[in-house]
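Predict structure. Chain length: 277.
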Amino acid sequence: MTENIIISDLKDFEEKKKKIIKKGASNFHVISDFDRTLTKCFVDGKRISSLISWLRNGNYLTKDYSSKAHALFDEYHPIEINPNIPFEEKKEKMYEWWKKHFDLLIECGLDKDTIKKAVKDMIKENFLVLREGAKEFLKILKERNIPLVIMSASVGDMIIEFLKENNVYYDNIIVIANLLEYEGEKVIGVKEIIHVLNKKEVDVNLIKTKNRKNVLLLGDGLGDLGMIKGFDFDVLVSTGFLNENVDENLDSFKKNFDAVILDDGDFGFVDDFIKEI
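Prediction complete.
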């Protein structure tokens, strides 16, 4: 075990792993967050924001888009990170923020070409990078026919385009995110708004995972543990990527995740886990 891997309860972890291995790949699937989980949190020493921030900070839409999007961020982000606001009130505000932002994206001319160009640019500029070992992880899942459910509050179409550009958008991958509706090339709506606080409320009655009751969950925050809600499971192994603020968050991560990967670590531990199944 490397220095940046912490197993909260080794005996419990090994027992869970043994049960998963016994049932095999045909009874197993993976649920993962996207931003700062499948992708790195830091690139060249810079903290990477979410996919949507690339649009917000770029020149892809109308001239007033960026200032209006930043104004929404300045209004709602303090609510998102305020621990004193009741959950239900905060959840309502997050929906409000996402709804206003998607309305703004539509108003400012988001279309298929813009999404493709933005994703190509972010890859070219090294803004968004898959973690080391993530491509192997995705390839192993594909080869063993293990479904991967990517659950994200980001723009689903951008996630899919990013995976396509990296040649890892395989047919075992299911993206549950803010998937867009189109009229021709133009974006006209969102199929279902998914924000940071309602991932667990999304309908996850998926045929591909229905009889696969053993699950590996990957996330970079305690809120990602809610992704399992809605899935019927027997054994759950949760792995948290603790990318920053380790001293403040380590105790809560150890308490809630079976395994913790520190310092924006790679997928080596996860890959080794998958290979044993």
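Summary: The longest helix spans residues 87-107.
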